[in-house]
Automatic annotation (TrEMBL):
Its main location: cytoplasm. This is Putative gluconeogenesis factor. GO terms for molecular function: LPPG:FO 2-phospho-L-lactate transferase activity. It comes from Streptococcus henryi. Required for morphogenesis under gluconeogenic growth conditions.
Length: 325
């Protein structure tokens, strides 16, 4: 019996948690990672070298690799303030950027690094060109650039992407569409709705593939609302935004955390983008998706509220086994 094929789409700090647990299962994994990040180290490197930003790819690479902890510490080491041009850059970003320059693209760099670090599965940037994220707000105002979106006070109506350095329509990286079409399950998130998940889904080829694939499409809903993106959102609001951007109700299953985050727990200084826990609207969810899976997916760590990767993956594996029979 062939292994189930699971493709995880997103970016940020959310999907590495799922991928790290998923790589211990008997499945074929593909990660499709956003390339619209224009802040911090990734933003600097993409601006200077006109390459797809390496930061989210770096975190996914670490999550899917069996590299020893010491190697991981080296790869994730961030140069300190005062280190001149290197300040704030993780060593891994510089390695990815260097190999991308040597091999002609970040896509090629990731294929080499997946072998070098014994990665379980495949890692593809969503596009082989850096993309610019545009957010159009309910009042008609448009903000350009992912790192600028949270600074505007208002509710986002929709987002779209453009190629950063040419006028062509954004396209998916090679093999991305095939991965989606041949999957048994597509996992969206967890991660920032407008800045980690949707920048992938609004690439026309990826959007079309999601509409046509026979795969189970599962969405791992965020635990907390996010400043500048999802204030006052319920879990059903998150799903409604995804479906609206895709044009039809694509989400088959929604995974929702029902464990309460302790009121005094959140470290607002460290995780200032998080506001309050996402409220539940189960009636709304049942109208938007075929299945709602609610459980304790909460993992409290370092002052933040994260998904417990093993608990989420246990539910995903139950779904994919049914689909794969």
């Amino acid at each position: 019996m062939k292994k189930p094929k699971i493709t995880v789409i997103g970016g940020g700090t959310g999907i590495p948690v799922i991928l790290n647990s998923l790589r211990h299962e008997d499945v074929e994994i593909t990660a499709i990672v956003t390339v619209a990040d224009d802040g911090g180290s990734s933003g600097e490197l993409r601006s200077v070298m006109q390459l797809t930003p390496p930061g989210d790819l770096r975190n996914v690479l670490v999550a899917m690799s069996d590299m020893p902890k010491f190697y991981e510490k080296i790869f994730q080491y961030r140069f300190q303030d005062g280190d001149g041009a290197l300040s704030g850059h993780p060593l891994g970003n510089l390695i990815i950027a260097g190999i991308a320059e040597m091999q002609g693209s970040t896509y090629n760099a990731m294929q080499i690094l997946t072998k070098f670090f014994h990665v379980t599965g495949k890692i593809y940037p969503a596009s082989e060109n850096p993309l610019t994220l545009h957010a159009v707000f309910k009042d008609g105002h448009e903000v350009v650039g992912e790192s600028n979106i949270a600074n505007y006070q208002g509710m986002i109506d929709h987002v779209y992407v453009t190629n950063t350095y040419n006028e062509e329509e954004p396209s998916a990286s090679r093999k991305v569409v095939d991965a989606i079409m041949n999957s048994d399950m597509i996992v969206l998130g967890p991660g920032s709705l407008y800045t980690s998940i949707l920048p992938n889904l609004v690439i026309p080829e990826i959007k079309q593939a999601l509409l046509e694939t026979k795969a189970e499409v599962a969405y791992v809903c965020n635990i907390m609302t996010q400043h500048g993106e999802t204030e006052h959102f319920t879990d059903a609001d998150h799903v409604a935004v995804l479906n609206r951007h895709l044009g039809v109700d694509v989400i088959d299953s929604v995974l929702v955390n029902i464990e309460k985050v302790p009121q005094d727990y959140m470290n607002s200084n460290k995780f200032d983008e998080y506001l309050v826990q996402v409220e539940h609207d189960f009636n709304g969810l049942r109208q938007l998706a075929k299945r709602v899976i609610s459980s304790n997916f909460l993992h409290l760590k370092n002052g933040g509220a994260f998904h417990h990767g093993d608990s989420v993956v246990e539910e995903l594996m139950n779904l994919v086994r049914i689909k794969h029979l």
